[in-house]
Amino acid sequence: MLPFPFSHSSLSLSKLTRKSLPRGFLAFRSPHQVQLHSRARVRNRDLDHKRYLTMATTMQKANRLKVAFDEGKGASMGCWQMIPGSNVSRTLARTGVDWVLVDCEHGNMDDVAMHEAVPAIAACGVSPIVRIPDNQGFMVKRALDSGAHGVLVPLLYTVEDAQKLVKSAKFPPVGQRGFGSPFPHERFDPALGSTDYLQQANDAILVMVQIETKEALDNVDAIAAVPGIDVLFIGPFDLGNNIGHPIVNGVMHDDLHAAIKKILEASRKAGKKAGIFCTSGEQSKGYADMGFDMISVATDVLILQASVTASLYTAKGLGAAPKLTGPYGK
Hints:
single chain
C-alpha cells in the first residue's frame, strides 16, 4: 500500500489535524479552503495509486520476450552474442530479433562486457538475456543487476538446482535476491524507479534452465513443475554428449531427437515455455513448426565465419563454401 497520511474515510474537516497539514496552513486559510485543499490532496493520491496500478505491468510490457510468450503468436526468435562490444550488441539487436542472449558461459563475455551489452540491447527495444556460467547466486545477481530481462542457467541436474535458481532470481518473500543496484530498472523503462523495479521484478523477469544433462532429462517433469521456472531451454550439443549420442558433423541421433521431444512435452504439461539452440535458419524453422516457443537462430561467431567464408569461396571461384556444423562454427 502507498503511505497515504489518511484515507477516504478521514476526509471530514473535524479529523484534519494540524499535524497532517502543511506548517502555517490554518493560519491564513478558511475552513472551506482547508476542505478544498484536502480534497485535492486525496485526488492526487488517487492519481498516484492509479499510476502504481498502471506501472505494475510496465516491466512486463518492456520485456519483449515475455510479451511474445504472452501473445502466443509463434516462436520468439533471438540470437547469441559471444563477441564482446556494445556495437556488436546493437548490430545484433537491430536485425529484427526479440532477444539477444549474452553468453557469459562459453562466450568472450566477462562481467564488464555483460554490463556493456545489456543496456545496448535494451536500448534497441530488444530483451537482453544473460546466460551465466554456473548456477551460483552471485552470478544470478550480477546478471539481473545489469538489467537482464531474463537469466539462463546451464547444466542443471536436479529439482533442487531449479529451486535454488528461483530463490536467487526472486526478491523476498519468494526468494532471497539482494536489492540495491542502481542500474536494472532503466533497462526496462527510463521512467521506472528502484521501488518500481523492486515491486515488479519478480513477475517480469524470466527464469530459464537448460535441460542438457542426463539427470535433468530424467527429472524433466519435476523440474518443469517448479514454481518460478518459466522456460526449459535445450542445448542439443551438451544434451547429446551427456546421453551418449554427441552430434558429429551435424548428425543427430534418434535418441537425441526423442529427448528433445520429451523436454518439449514436459514444458507443455507444466504450462511452461520451451526453447532450443539452433545453428541455422532451416533448423530453426523445423523446431518452430514443432511448437517451440523460443529459438536461437544464429550466433555472432558462426554467422561472421560463415559469411566471410562464403564470400571468399565465391571470390575465388571455388563454388559453395563448406557447411559449418559445430555449435559456433567449425
